[in-house]
Amino acid sequence: MDKKSLIGFVLIGVVFIAWIVYNSYHTQNLEPPKLQDTSEVKTKQLDDTSLTKETFDDIENDNEITEERDTFDEKDSLLLYRRFGRDFAPFVGGDEKIIIVENELIKAYISSKGGTILKWWLKEYKQWNGYQTQLIWNDGGELFLKFPLREDKQVMIDTRDLNFTFNTNKSKYQLSGSDSLIITATLEPSKGKSIVKTLKFYGDKYVVDTDIIFNNMESIVHPKGYYLMWTDGLKYQEQSSVDESSEAEAMISLNDELFTLNADETEVQKESVLGAIDFAAVKLKYFTAAIIPHNHSFDGALDISGSMQNVRNEGIVERYNMSFHFPYKGGYQESSFRVYIGPLDYDKVSSYGLEATVNFGWRWLIRPIGEYFMLPFFKLIYSFIYNFGISIMIFAVLMKIILYPLSIQQMRSAHKMKLIAPEMEKMREKYKDDNKKQQQQMMKLYSEYGINPAGGCLPLLLQMPILYAMWSVLRTSIDLRQADFLWWITDLSLPDIIVSFPIAILGIKHISGLALLMGITLFFQQKLTITDPRQKGLVYMMPIMFTLMFSNFPAGLNLYYFMFNLLGIIQQIYINKFSRKRLTLEELKKMPKKEGWIQKKMKQAQEIAESQGKSAPNAPYQNTKTKYSRKKKKK
């Protein structure tokens, strides 16, 4: 190994170690805040018809991070009137009623305090710890209103402090199929003046249609208007809060233009837009909550904000807020929304115009490949197999067939380089003390055998968008979440850990089984393709590096890359050993020569270098003469 190659490997090692250290800080598989037991055994206690907020809090006190809000004693009348005004003070306190609405997909808890959503359970999904998925932080409810008082705009009313009246005394509803249910929560400060909030549920949907009505409230509510709020984002569901935070964000779609906010700092970050809003959403890796104005009826100001918070066990939680602003001119004013709270399943969210919430990668190149080809193709395979692990393996085979024209060109180029490797080694040995002569002879050798030294690079580059789109689809696909495969893989969306270390070694805490298999196949693939003796170190370094890197990747993704590499090895062996069209060195020399664009550029560069080398001895004299001539002209 020459000096330059040794320096190159040392630099690669330094970069690799730096990456490992960085990765250990940012992508550890850390547990989020521990959750209280919220299994069905406990939720059954909430099915009683005499539910109260006190009972609810005793059973599900899981708010590790809470928003601090003022609480008031009903007897402290003076404080209440100062804080809420004479119109709203009578509605503070009192018994809070909770209505349970259950359909085929969700189980929701609606509070009379502001007509808010307290809890939103998803029946078909579980948290990492096996408990039922529940997406609302226990901070007092979501989809609430805020507005300033006309008599004092500094006083901001939060409807979660006000007890609305429901249109029903029943506390539990069961829906299915085409059933629907409308729950109305009304607050009437005086006769003819009211705030009304309606929630319409369906038997087979993750959505709730929401109408907000302000009726003759101009003498109480400031003309600045009111705000429809969603705060704190969604409750974390996965084992690694760091990994889940990497996909958490808030977004706004404005006339099909997407604005995103990623809260990667502890300081609050904000984004505001003004115009016709398509939707606003907060999301995690696999779930989202989106507010969709009815028929694009909202044309106003929308704010999103977010911040990152450090929680115990070195975890990270990102909290996001959405705020729709409605000016209020008085009289009767109605605003209508559809709210989706559910999984980031592409088929489900796209039916509501929310396909942008699913992350497929770069919008202008990678996303179309993943959205319109990769995902439909993968789901088509699953519709026949009903096993995601086997579907991934079959998908890898089909992708290898589709990419055959590109990969075969790459492999043939590697085979040609392997054929002339002995000749190249002779040139290096013969001209080891003359690098210039060595390069000239190498170029002649390439020209003589019609080989493009960069011939294997272009097919690889053309494959990269497809492979990255596949990476995006498999990494964030909710279909792989908690899908098991083989005896040691219980979740294809998580790393399949076979060895854990008591302490982190260069930031690595565990080794993934499929990542190890992928590394082994990469080793044999490198052995078959790398012919340059100066690059032999890569045969060992690359598999080790990728095994460590991919040990934090989802098992489904590593399964795909393992199969892809394995098929590549089979294909390369067939070309090298068994293909009827396999070349010999003599046949390669006799083949018609086609000089590609890259070869031409390399040849031109070589000619320029040679011409500069010939003129170099006379350069000082020529430069001196030129300077003298210029001075003479100036005189």
* End-to-end separation: 58 Å
CATH top level assignment of the largest domain: Mainly Beta
- Structural class by sheet pairing and helices: alpha+beta
The biggest sheet, with number of strands, parallel, antiparallel or mixed sense and barrel status, is: 14 strands, antiparallel
Structure summary, number of beta strands: 21
- Percentage beta strand: 15-25%
What coarse outline follows from CA principal-axis ratios? elongated
Counting DSSP H or I runs of 4 or more residues, the number of helices is 18
Task: Give me the CATH architecture of the largest domain, please.
Answer: Distorted Sandwich
Number of domains: 2
CATH topology category name of the largest domain: Beta-galactosidase, Chain A, domain 5
Low-confidence stretches: 19-68, 614-635
Description:
The chain is α+β, with helices and mostly antiparallel strands. It has two domains: about 325 residues, Beta-galactosidase, Chain A, domain 5 (Distorted Sandwich); about 220 residues, no CATH class. It is about 40% helix and about 25% strand. Strands 5, 6, 7, 9, 10, 11, 12, 13, 14, 15, 16, 17, 18 and 19 form a 14-stranded antiparallel beta sheet that branches. A five-stranded mixed beta sheet has the order 4-3-2-1-8, with no helix packed on it. A hairpin with a 3-residue loop joins strand 15 and strand 16. Helix 7 crosses helix 8 and helix 9 packs across helix 15. The longest helix has 24 residues. The chain is elongated and about 100 Å long. The C terminus is likely disordered.
